[in-house]
Specification:
There is one protein chain. The chain is α/β, with parallel strands linked by helices. Helices cover 28% and strands 29% of the residues. It has helices at residues 32-39, 58-66, 79-89, 95-98, 112-117, 145-151, 157-168, 184-191, 243-249; strands at 2-4, 8-13, 18-23, 48-52, 71-76, 101-105, 125-130, 169-179, 195-206, 213-220, 227-228, 232-235. Strands 4, 5, 6, 7, 8, 9, 10, 11 and 12 form a 9-stranded mixed sheet that branches. Strand 9 and strand 10 (213-220) form a beta hairpin. The longest helix has 12 residues, at 157-168. The chain is globular and about 45 Å long.
Length: 258
């Protein structure tokens, strides 16, 4: 379902179980990446979750929709996108979880006292998810400043965002990241010494094509090593998504099977 005004659309996710107000053209519009990221959170999660770089809130809302005891904080630095998240939370279609969500307007890269003052206190969250901008600055850039901010990666971004995640995570908290496969080396480097027990799940458009995304999951303070899991194949020669991908995208299954 999608209804549109001149500046925003109202979009249904999880087959109508939650709705999102998002910009019609100016900013980042959420889709499958946000749903796959949300699917990395285990079924039955019941703690405090932070969605870093939340945009209009799609991934965080998807977790709140699927996990009825989850408490979700959406962290977004762009005032316009944070406003879309607040508008989405106020929709009557989202009443089931609105009381378990909040929005913090802050830069994920803030550190120390500035981060705490913005509302991101140390050791406050049991799980953290992030869908950072992952287009290289050399890639063809959009002319829209708001969309460019959401899409174009800054130098050292993964290091700064994962440093923040480590600071606000409680001991043994989980972390999930969705990114391009080409960001693997930088992500693993930033996780080192902070998160371990790393699981990497490649996302393939078709079974004979290279991965276009990776979803990385890790645990704060774990000494476990890296496991590369069998990839998720989105399409298997028939129209639409394969069964497991369809279930994850629609909030009916966890991406990692837990």
């Amino acid at each position: 379902m999608e209804s549109e005004t001149n500046t925003a659309t109202l979009d249904a996710f999880h087959r109508g179980r939650f709705h999102l107000v998002q910009p019609a053209a100016r900013g980042h519009r959420s889709g499958i990446d946000a749903m796959l990221l949300a699917g990395a959170v285990p079924d039955g999660f019941s703690g405090d979750l932070a969605d870093l770089g939340a945009g209009a809130g799609a991934a965080g809302f998807a977790v709140a929709s699927r996990c009825p005891a989850a408490r979700v904080t959406l962290v977004e630095r762009a005032a316009e996108m944070a406003d879309y998240a607040r508008r989405s939370a106020a929709l009557r279609e989202n009443n089931a979880f609105a009381g378990r969500t909040s929005v913090i307007e802050a830069d994920v890269a803030l550190a120390g006292k500035a981060r705490v003052a913005a509302g991101l206190a140390d050791r406050s969250y049991d799980f953290i998810i992030m869908n950072p901008p992952f287009n290289d600055a050399r890639d063809r850039a959009t002319p829209h400043a708001l969309k460019r901010e959401a899409h174009v990666m800054e130098d050292g971004m993964f290091e700064r965002w994962i440093k923040t995640a480590a600071a606000i995570a409680r001991p043994s908290a989980g972390l999930a990241i969705i990114a391009r496969a080409g960001s693997t080396e930088e992500i693993l480097g930033a996780l080192g010494g902070r998160f371990g027990g790393i699981e990497m799940l490649p996302i393939h458009p078709h079974e004979d094509e290279a991965a276009i995304r990776i979803v990385v999951r890790a645990i704060k303070g774990s000494r476990g090593g890296l496991r590369i899991l069998p990839g998720l194949i989105l399409h298997r020669g028939t129209p639409g998504y394969c069964a497991h991908a369809e279930a994850v995208i629609n909030g009916q299954a966890a991406l990692f099977g837990d």
